[in-house]
């Protein structure tokens, strides 16, 4: 935890310009082409993207995940300290659990393991109508399917009419259409809402 | 009891007309029901329309004189068929819609089955009638109560009474009235970062989604995994809470040892 704090304070100072640059050359202009030239291999047309995987976590051995894709393929996904993990909010790699669904991007290593740079756990993007709002959740209708959306205090945000996100959910209205980014609770029709986009 | 039973054909007739009209108006609804599974894809639509014709015929027979006992028995047979079909739907094709009356993508639920059972019960009661509904007198008043029960069981009509009722209740007291706070949601910060010149300057270096974020006094910091010159690095953005101009957002690319490799905002300020 201390090291996290140290790292954070170092990064804070760097971003605010309180630390010196490594070398004068680092100040040279960086054209986008230079950066893109360094990126990994691209997928062949018509072939699955080698740097992407999705599926259900069937097993976990330390930080190596066994994932079964929806097309039946098996993936091995290695999480590292620099992997970004989204599970309702940016979180830590220990939050990826057996039974969770995920999308992963990274670099396919020669031994077939995908070294993940970013994973999104249980993420879902739904277009819905709000059918009821209660203390224990927002009832959503997703093309005829009932979905219960739970509000997580401090995390759930709302975007009204495309304006910047706010934590104020009191402008949600029954009968309105909405788009919801959230996290499934595996095996249920319930989600935790990260962001709900609607009109007021 | 006699007048009550005699009045039923009026309600059953009107309900069947409504249901039949819905099927005629939009025969494509057949594809969303369990019919394709039951009778085959090619026959679903003709069967759906045939049911609509039968409904209309029975409805007109019930509504128009003379009053024959056979009409009520036909209604019993039809509503028993509906109930059976809906139960089959719910068990065998749970995602299928009811296709009962009008457009509804909702899968068959307990309400649809309850409505079919209520129709079966009213049709059963109608078989005991000895006169037509036009001579039922005060019995017709009971139909109002029954009609309300049917309306409440009809998912197709929810938007006319249930949603306005819920909207009204929320206007009185919103369950999330207390959720407003001064904290900036991360998604708002992320949007500002994505629209900033600082993000454009390092976009090609970023390798991950948001890795970590924290607040420190007037700033929120957001870090991403990055690669710089083939080395692993971290890109960290500083987003001021107060100043909302895109140019106020700063970024630095820091390597594993903590050395700052790149800071495009400095370039901008020093010219």
From TrEMBL, chain A:
The keyword Signal applies. InterPro entries: TAT_signal (IPR006311). Residues 1-37 form the signal peptide. Keywords: Signal. This is Cell wall protein. The lineage of its organism: Bacteria, Bacillati, Actinomycetota, Actinomycetes, Propionibacteriales.
Automatic annotation (TrEMBL), chain B:
The chain crosses the membrane at residues 46-64, 112-134, 140-162. InterPro entries: Methylamine_util_MauE (IPR009908). Residues 3-126 form the Methylamine utilisation protein MauE domain. It is found in: Membrane. It is a multi-pass membrane protein. Pfam families: MauE. Keywords: Membrane, Transmembrane, Transmembrane helix. The keyword Ligase does not apply. This is Methylamine utilisation protein MauE domain-containing protein. It comes from Kribbella pratensis.
């Amino acid at each position: 935890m201390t090291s996290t704090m140290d790292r954070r304070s170092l990064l804070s100072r760097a971003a605010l310009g309180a630390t010196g640059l490594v070398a004068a050359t680092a100040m040279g202009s960086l054209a986008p082409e230079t950066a893109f030239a360094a990126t990994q291999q691209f997928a062949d047309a018509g072939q699955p993207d080698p740097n992407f995987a999705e599926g259900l976590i069937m097993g976990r051995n330390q930080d190596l995940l066994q994932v079964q894709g929806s097309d039946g393929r098996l993936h091995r996904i290695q999480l590292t300290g620099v992997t970004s993990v989204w599970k309702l909010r940016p979180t830590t790699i220990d939050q990826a659990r057996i039974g969770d669904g995920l999308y992963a991007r990274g670099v396919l290593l020669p031994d077939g393991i995908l070294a993940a740079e970013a994973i999104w756990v249980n993420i879902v993007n739904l277009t819905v109508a709000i059918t009821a709002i209660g203390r224990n959740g927002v009832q959503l209708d997703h093309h005829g399917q009932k979905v219960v959306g739970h509000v997580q205090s401090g995390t759930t945000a709302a975007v009204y009419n495309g304006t910047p996100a706010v934590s104020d959910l009191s402008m949600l209205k029954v009968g309105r259409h909405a788009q919801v980014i959230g996290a499934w609770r595996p095996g249920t029709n319930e989600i935790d809402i990260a962001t709900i986009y609607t009109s007021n | 009891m006699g007048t009550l039973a005699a009045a039923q054909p009026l309600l059953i007739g009107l309900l069947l007309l409504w249901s039949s009209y819905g099927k005629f108006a939009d025969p494509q609804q057949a594809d969303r029901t369990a019919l394709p599974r039951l009778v085959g894809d090619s026959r679903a639509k003709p069967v759906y329309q045939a049911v609509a014709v039968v409904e209309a015929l029975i409805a007109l027979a019930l509504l128009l004189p003379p009053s024959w006992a056979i009409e009520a028995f036909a209604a019993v047979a039809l509503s028993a068929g509906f109930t059976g079909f809906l139960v089959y739907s719910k068990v065998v094709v749970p995602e299928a819609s009811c296709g009962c009356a009008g457009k509804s993508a909702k899968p068959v639920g307990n309400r649809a089955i309850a409505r079919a059972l209520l129709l079966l019960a009213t049709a059963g009661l109608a078989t005991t009638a000895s006169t037509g509904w036009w001579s039922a007198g005060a019995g017709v008043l009971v139909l109002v109560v029954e009609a309300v029960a049917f309306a409440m069981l009809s998912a197709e009509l929810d938007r006319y009474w249930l949603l306005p009722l819920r909207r009204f209740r929320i206007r009185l007291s919103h369950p999330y009235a207390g959720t407003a706070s001064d904290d900036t949601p991360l998604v708002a910060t992320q949007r500002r970062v994505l629209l900033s010149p600082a993000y454009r300057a390092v976009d090609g270096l970023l390798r991950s989604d948001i890795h970590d974020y924290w607040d420190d006094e007037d700033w929120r910091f957001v870090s991403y995994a990055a690669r710089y010159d083939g080395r692993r690095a971290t890109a960290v953005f500083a987003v001021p809470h107060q100043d909302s101009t895109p140019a106020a957002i700063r970024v630095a690319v820091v390597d594993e040892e903590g050395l700052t490799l790149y800071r495009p905002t400095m370039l901008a300020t020093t010219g």
